[in-house]
TrEMBL record:
Residues 377-391 have a biased composition (Basic and acidic residues). This is Glycosyltransferase. Residues 16-162 form the Glycosyltransferase subfamily 4-like N-terminal domain. Residues 193-337 form the Glycosyl transferase family domain. Keywords: Glycosyltransferase, Transferase. The lineage of its organism: Bacteria, Bacillati, Actinomycetota, Actinomycetes, Propionibacteriales. It comes from Microlunatus ginsengisoli. PANTHER family: D-INOSITOL 3-PHOSPHATE GLYCOSYLTRANSFERASE (PTHR12526:SF510), GLYCOSYLTRANSFERASE (PTHR12526).
Amino acid sequence: MRIALIGTRGVPARYGGFETCIEEVGSRLAAAGHEVIVYCRPTGDGAEQLETYKGMRLVHLPIVRKRSLETLAHTGLSVLHRSLRGVDAAIVFNSANAPLLPVIRARGIPVATHVDGLEWKRGKWGPTGQRYYRTAESLAVRWSDALIADAEGIADYYAREFEAETELIAYGAPISRPADAVRVAELDLAPGKYHLVVARFEPENHVLEAVQGYVASRAELPLVVVGSAPYADEYTAAVAAAADSRVRLLGGVWDQEQLDQLYAHALTYLHGHSVGGTNPSLLRAAGAGAYTLAFDVSFNREVIGEQGEFWRTPSELAGQLEDVEADPDRAHRGGEALQRAIARYNWDDVAAAYERLCVRLAEGRTPARRPSGRRTGVPEREPLRELELQH
């Protein structure tokens, strides 16, 4: 098959979950003999624009450098590009791209939409942006031949809000615990002697609260913070202002070997993501055996279950950090248990599920009638607090 992957920054993966998914799934589909086309945005850092990567064909198209327009404008160019001719199935990532689904279908291409998380809950969007994302959810339900959810909480949301079925395909977790810590030592860090945050700097990822909780604690080991984000200068400044001398702000770390070693040798991994479904950073940390202190939402509980701890406030996190430093062996044992449990998230299985979906799309085995996209009118429950109420 010819399969198009549309709507992200592209590969190599250097940004977030969608890009990681495309790299892991697309490379496996290419290895299975399919022609995989990935539409990419310029990185802005002068990096070489590759024509192929891990067997995938890359198509580079320009962008509008404005947060509210970048994604949709680039996807618009992608769905009109000549390279889409003859594609058997397309996967569009991000429901924000839903207004362009009719263009793909008009070209005779069946399309599935990976709807991501509850994007309209992100604080970076004002009222207009939030209304747009809620409308885009409805359009994705109405115009997609299939919907992909990466977490049970997201699948439940679409079932409740729209009476729409989804393909539940989570991300995979790379299972590795490198014994080598030389790349950690380059940062003047010792194995098991630091806490770690890896996140895009956005309010819903609670980087600021993680730093505040750490600063409020009596923890003696340093907190290493990896991450940044475009259009996030104000939030980045707030994180820096909250830090004290124990906090190491590294910015973005694009060296995957070094990042893998940072995960593997951290005493704890602090995970604050709250609205994005199953998160690849959480899976990577768990796969590396890092003991995880996660923000208490259903998506995170779904992944780590009883093999970690959960927090809602900086003060709760402060107490957990102090307890871990008082008994580091418990954290080591917990990390090993989490690594064993997380093996159920397997990229080979994920890629196989995408392949089966693409086959169904290419063969025209899609619902004769999709849901209307109208919301059910059932009073909306707060999906991020459902698990809190249950527990």
